[in-house]
Write a structure and sequence with these properties.
Blueprint: E1 8-9, E2 13-21, E3 25-32, E4 38-44, H1 46-49, H2 52-66, E5 76-82, E6 85-91, E7 96-97, H3 98-105, H4 110-129, E8 142-145, E9 149-152, H5 157-161, H6 164-167, H7 196-212, H8 222-230, H9 237-240, H10 246-255, H11 267-274
Antiparallel strand pairs: 1-2, 2-3, 3-4, 4-6, 5-6, 7-8, 8-9
Helix pairs in contact: 4-7, 4-11, 7-10
Length: about 300
Amino acid sequence: MLPQSGELIHGKYRVLRPLADGGMGTIYEARHEVLGTSVALKVLHPNLARRPNLVARFLQEAKLSATLVSPHIVRVLDVEQGPQGVLLVMELLRGETLQALLDRQHRLEVPQAIDFTLQMLEGLKVAHAASVVHRDLKPDNVFITAGPLLKLLDFGIAKLRTSPEFDRGLTRPGVVMGTPEYMAPEQAFSADTVDARADLYALGVILFEMLSGQRPVRGDDPKQIAQRVFSGHVTALSALLPSLPMSLVSAVHRAMAPNPRGRFDSADDMRHALLPFAASAHPGTAVLGPVGHLSTPPAPTQPTGPST
């Protein structure tokens, strides 16, 4: 049974209110009873918490996520298992997802889109150095806090969702997990073999969307989208934004190359290609985020999405 508002979980976390619900579990705002600090609790759904192998993998992925220390990755503070359930304790974020911003603004100015991408690359650099691949990078898994400071969410959860333990009884064997329009084409056929360049592909799609207001390929069938990418049926960024410098257009399309060997080798390589277009390279250009304009912080929120 899922916790109720006011309930004390594992003797130390007081549940305040639900924030979001997804395929893996429900996220709550809570308060540490002793320290008085606010946290976010991701409570594994009871039907999943009854599967020992899945719980073991959940705990393993949580421990791995806790080792990723970066201002651009949401902090995992604790993981708990007991009679009241299995939960992940994370820092409580204030702001909104990148998806919410794009829903409202449609597209971003070049300096802001580049700044956001550079921040995401900093987070990916730390994760990839630890041999952690996100596998489901998308605007819903990017959170914008005051600053604006971007934080990547749900490392390890996407991998967990592809596991046989999660798949059993919920989906057909071999089903592809992830978000098709951001998914590297090789991931549509074998999620287990993807490497860090799959994350760079997804980030290229996100940058394309931030700049143009649309995704390079649309659809909901991963293998059909992959075939379109392999055959070159991808919208050209220059066709949507002919005034963009060709070197920037080339960098975006290189990140989205059909073959991983055609992409950037690392987050650092992609960062160096984008730095000339950052606001810091053009003095007098401001980069403002949605929460950067607020005189008071917004209410604590936590993103929704299939990977929660």
